[in-house]
């Protein structure tokens, strides 16, 4: 199996239909079907379920799609870097945990645009675990991680913002008018928790109880989905401030925790992967920007 076949599989999955994919790829539908059968025979598993309304991926198909996308992105990135090995141009990829501290990196990207107009950015919103996994596999150049990274695996620069924890509740909930919430306000409430174990442990330490004591109705890795559960009154989502903005349109309210619970945020990159010239230019710009921010804070 080669990269061309993997990219063909990506096109089929995106089209959701063999005939439509064949038209987009400018090959015949029978030839495309034979190629899929060949891949399934090579891998020894079924990749697609064919139905009257198109195709759907099997579990093996979903796994192959994820890996095919990663390999395709990595090949594109490698080709760009090899074509201009000593020039700060091409793509800088950044995997971001959900945090408003990403705004500082957005300012760095804007500043770098003025001095290196040939650099482009690829931002990916991911859970903290996915951020570190994709860094370790070389799929992205940098990560924005909430909480301390493993110092033996990653370099890290602390970002200026500190994220505070709170509860996202429906605007008509009896907790919505509170100035802050303590453990006693939440311990018997239906809750929506972050899926990351370390985040759950921090919340439980703050609550002063084990996870089994809490009424956890759901977990989430990205807060947008959790916010929809909150709007449906499934429970209160324990989350970081500034990710989903409460408004009359979404009928949500954010109430900070008291005693305060906070997390710091880091820009991290792998110790085992060498940065491209574009990546190094971004890192230099980030370090300069953050130094200026710290100096301004001291004035």
TrEMBL record:
Coiled-coil residue windows: none
PANTHER family: HTH-TYPE TRANSCRIPTIONAL REGULATOR YBHD, NITROGEN ASSIMILATION TRANSCRIPTIONAL ACTIVATOR-RELATED
Family (UniProt): Belongs to the LysR transcriptional regulatory family.
Organism: Collinsella tanakaei
GO terms of molecular function: DNA binding; DNA-binding transcription factor activity
CDD domains per the UniProt record, alphabetical: PBP2_LTTR_substrate (cd05466)
The keyword DNA-binding appears for this protein: yes
UniProt keyword annotations, A-Z: DNA-binding, Transcription, Transcription regulation
One GO term describing the cellular component: cytosol
Domain HTH lysR-type: from-to ranges: 1-58
Pfam families given in the database record: HTH_1, LysR_substrate
Protein name per Swiss-Prot or TrEMBL: LysR family transcriptional regulator
SUPFAM superfamilies assigned to the protein according to its UniProt record, in alphabetical order: Periplasmic binding protein-like II, Winged helix' DNA-binding domain
């Amino acid at each position: 199996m080669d990269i061309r076949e993997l990219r063909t599989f990506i096109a089929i999955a995106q089209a959701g239909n063999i005939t439509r994919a064949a038209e987009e790829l400018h090959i015949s539908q029978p030839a495309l079907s034979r190629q899929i059968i060949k891949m399934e025979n090579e891998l020894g598993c079924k990749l697609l379920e064919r139905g009257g309304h198109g195709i759907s991926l099997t579990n093996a198909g979903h796994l192959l799609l994820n890996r095919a996308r990663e390999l395709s992105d990595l090949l594109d990135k490698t080709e760009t870097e090899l074509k201009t090995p000593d020039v700060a141009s091409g793509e800088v990829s950044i995997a971001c945990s959900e945090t408003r501290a990403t705004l500082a990196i957005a300012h760095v990207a804007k500043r770098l645009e003025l001095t290196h107009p040939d650099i482009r950015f690829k931002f990916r919103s991911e859970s903290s675990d996915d951020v570190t996994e994709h860094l370790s596999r070389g799929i992205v150049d940098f990560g924005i991680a909430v909480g301390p990274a493993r110092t033996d695996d990653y370099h890290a620069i602390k970002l200026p913002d500190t994220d505070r924890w709170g509860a996202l509740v429906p605007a008509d909930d009896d907790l919505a008018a509170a100035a802050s919430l303590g453990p006693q306000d939440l311990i018997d409430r239906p809750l929506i928790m972050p899926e990351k174990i370390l985040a759950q442990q921090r919340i439980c330490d703050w609550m002063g109880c084990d996870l089994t004591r809490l009424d956890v109705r759901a977990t989430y890795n990205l807060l947008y989905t959790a916010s929809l559960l909150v709007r449906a009154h499934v429970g209160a989502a324990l989350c970081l401030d500034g990710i989903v903005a409460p408004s009359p349109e979404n009928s949500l309210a954010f109430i900070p925790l008291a005693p305060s619970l906070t997390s710091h945020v880091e820009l991290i990159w792998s110790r085992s992967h060498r940065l491209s010239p574009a990546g190094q230019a971004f890192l230099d710009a980030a370090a300069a920007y953050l130094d200026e921010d710290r100096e301004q804070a001291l004035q």
